Amino acid sequence: MDRKQAGVKILFAIQGTGNGHLSRARDVYPELAKYGDVDVLISGIQADVDVPFPVKHKLYGMSFIFGKKGGVDLWETVRRSNLPRLIRDIRSLRVAQYDLVINDFEPVSSWACKLAKKPCISLSHQCAVLHKNAPKPTSTDPMGKFILMRYAPVTAEYGFHFKAFADNIFTPVIRNEIRDLVPEDNGHYTVYLPAYDDATIVKHLSQFPNARWEVFSKHNKEAFTAGNVSICKINNRAFIESMAASTGLLCGAGFEGPAEAMYLGKKVLVIPMQTQYEQHCNAAGAAAMGATVINSLHEKHYGVIRQWLAEGAYIKVDYPDITADIIAKIMQQHAPSHKQKTKKAVGAGV
Question: Which residues have a Cβ under 8 Å from the Cβ of 69 and sit 6 or more positions away?
Fold first, then answer.
């Protein structure tokens, strides 16, 4: 059946904290649009990536604010939170008008669905992180796990991880921008550490003078160079071109960045953000793929960094393009058929 002709109305709700969710959405949105009319909702205030499709709902949401010393700035997160606004947005979002709500770890739509007793379908990395088969850190974090579980409640889950370890867990969405690149090795290292300020990054990376570092900064709007460390403004195209031409990627323990670097055959060194349970889970998953992990950008880890620079493994993973298949599976399982919608309309006297 042509779902587009059936008039399926879809809400695609995306988390706007960090860049990974929006990067993945670039490839997910066109597949959803094949099945009906898609309204996009983005909540959060910490992303640096633009999207090439219309956004109907841009909400403040509930964001974790990156600090400058390696973790989430809890005080700034509390200070900039707006609970009354969040509650108002949840109550005012009319999710009943949609046939299908697809949620990428976005709290407003998920809680609105919960209040309305409406199904909410997760299509995210976070639900894969919580899966019983997913790699976990050796240290426990009950509060972090609790927050991850309750932040955006859903009724069905389809997840992405470094490996597909269950029927509803898939390998990463590698956006076409990355698939179209031809990897090279120009000898530099690409860096994205949004939880550290530029001064801290320069201080530590300058201790490795034989390496050239191209740092994409969340904290500085002007490019500059300090010795062997180049600080670049955040720019999606410049970042992926730098990564494609690099020897390796040094980044936080997010998901999309390390996955893309692995797809491109790069060395990968990750630093999980402090007090961020999900990132420590990601670090465990990345380590299982061959990545190097350190817990902080600190002189006590200089030996590991030197070893990574000299002997770090080049990771090459073949992640097939299965986004269309995943969306088709979700539609088959959860989208109302044209026949069902017609029957409902007749029964209502329309």
Answer: 195, 196, 197, 200
